[in-house]
C-alpha cells in the first residue's frame, strides 16, 4: 500500500522547520528523518500525517563535535555515520559498536539517531545507549528549547517526553574517563533483527558502574541491583549477577520468564566483554 496524500515541506533551516511544525502539529503533521520507521507505518496507514516536514536538508542537525568532556551529535546523524566516525569511536566506542547492531546497511544508511530516539522502540539500541550515557537531549519548538535527560525521555512503548510541536535537535554525552571498561551484548533471532533482550555496561575505574537493559520491558531501564553488585569490581560471581539481573527485571515488570533468563545472560555477557574493552 502507498501512504495517504500529504503536503510535503523541505526546510533548510531549523527555525523554518520548527515554524512549519508549530502550524502542522495540531492536525497530526510530523517531521520525517530517515523514514525507516515512519514510511512503513504510513504505507500500512497506521499513521496518516497530513503534512510531512523533511529534516534531511537541515544541515545544522548533522554536525558532530567533541570537547575534552563531551561528545555531541545532531539528531540527523545517521546510524551508519555513528558506526564509522573516528570521533565517535575514539570518544564513545560503545556507541559506535551498538550502532552496528541496528538493522542492516540500508537501514543504517538512512536511519538517524534522533529518529530512533523519538520512535522509542523498547528493543532499539540507541535509546539504551543514551540512557547508559545519561545523555542530554536538546529539543526545540518555535517558542523555545529545553534539554531533557535520557532518563526522563522514554515514557513507555513508543512514547516519549517530546511534545508534538518539538523537534529533537542534539544529543550530548559525557565522555567516559580513560580506563573505563565497556560491554554491549544483545540477542536477536537473526543479526539485524530487533533485540529480544540486550544489555550494556560502563565500568569507570573506581567509579559508579552503570548497566542498562533493553528489549524486555516497555522501555530501556537501569539495572540498579546489578550496578550495586558490580561496585565490588567486575569479577563477580555469576550466580550473584544472575540473581541481581532477575531482581532488576522484576522491578522493570518483565513478566516473560524466558526474557528474564535471557536478560540475565545478556547482562553477564556484557560484563564479561567489558573485561577486554576499554575507552
Ligand atoms: C527492516 C528494519 C529493521 C530495523 N532494525 C532495527 C534494529 O535492529 N534496531 C533499531 O534500533 N532500529 C531498527 N530499525 C529502525 C531504524 O533504526 C529506524 O531508522 C529508526 O527507528 C527511526 O529512524 P529514522 O531516522 O528512520 O526516523 P523516521 O522513520 O523518519 O521517524 C520515526 C519517528 O520519529 C520522528 N522523528 C524523527 N526524527 C525526529 C526529530 N529529530 N525530532 C522529532 N521527531 C523526529 C518522526 O516524526 C517519526 O514519528 C529497523 C527498521 C527496519 C525497516
Automatic annotation (TrEMBL):
- Tell me where on the tree of life, at the top rank, the source sits: Bacteria
Q: Which Pfam families match?
A: FAD_binding_5
Work out whether the entry's keyword set contains Flavoprotein.
yes
Keyword annotations of the record? FAD, Flavoprotein, Oxidoreductase
Q: Indicate yes or no for the key word Nucleotidyltransferase.
A: no
Q: List each copy of the FAD-binding PCMH-type domain by range.
A: 1-178
- InterPro entries assigned: CO_DH_flav_C, CO_DH_flav_C_dom_sf, Diverse_Substr_Oxidored, FAD-bd_PCMH, FAD-bd_PCMH-like_sf, FAD-bd_PCMH_sub1, FAD-bd_PCMH_sub2, Mopterin_DH_FAD-bd
Please identify the protein, giving its name as recorded: Xanthine dehydrogenase family protein subunit M
Amino acid at each position: 500500500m502507498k501512504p495517504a496524500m500529504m503536503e510535503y515541506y523541505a526546510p533548510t533551516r531549523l527555525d523554518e522547520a520548527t515554524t512549519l511544525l508549530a502550524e502542522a502539529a495540531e492536525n497530526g503533521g510530523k517531521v520525517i528523518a530517515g523514514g525507516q520507521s515512519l514510511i512503513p507505518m504510513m504505507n500500512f496507514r497506521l499513521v496518516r500525517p497530513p503534512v510531512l516536514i523533511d529534516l534531511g536538508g537541515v544541515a545544522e542537525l548533522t554536525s558532530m563535535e567533541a570537547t575534552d568532556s563531551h561528545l555531541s551529535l545532531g539528531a540527523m546523524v545517521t546510524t551508519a555515520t555513528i558506526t564509522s566516525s573516528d570521533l565517535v569511536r575514539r570518544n564513545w566506542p560503545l556507541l559506535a559498536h551498538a550502532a552496528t547492531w541496528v538493522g542492516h546497511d540500508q537501514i543504517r544508511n538512512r536511519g538517524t539517531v534522533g529518529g530512533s530516539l523519538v520512535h522509542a522502540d523498547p528493543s532499539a539500541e540507541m535509546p539504551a545507549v543514551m540512557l547508559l550515557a545519561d545523555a542530554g537531549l536538546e529539543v526545540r519548538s518555535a517558542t523555545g528549547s529545553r534539554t531533557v535527560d535520557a532518563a526522563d525521555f522514554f515514557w513507555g512503548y513508543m512514547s516519549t517526553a517530546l511534545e508534538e510541536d518539538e523537534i529533537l535537535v542534539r544529543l550530548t554525552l559525557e565522555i567516559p574517563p580513560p580506563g573505563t571498561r565497556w560491554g554491549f551484548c544483545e540477542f536477536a533471532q537473526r543479526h539485524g533483527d530487533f533485540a529480544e533482550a540486550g544489555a550494556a555496561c560502563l565500568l569507570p575505574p573506581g567509579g559508579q558502574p552503570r548497566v542498562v537493559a533493553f528489549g524486555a520491558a516497555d522501555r530501556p531501564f537501569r539495572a540498579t541491583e546489578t550496578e550495586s553488585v558490580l561496585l565490588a569490581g567486575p569479577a563477580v560471581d555469576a550466580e550473584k549477577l544472575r540473581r541481581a539481573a532477575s531482581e532488576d527485571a522484576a522491578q522493570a515488570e518483565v513478566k516473560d520468564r524466558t526474557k528474564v533468563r535471557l536478560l540475565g545472560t545478556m547482562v553477564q555477557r556484557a560484563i564479561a566483554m567489558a573485561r577486554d574493552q576499554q575507552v
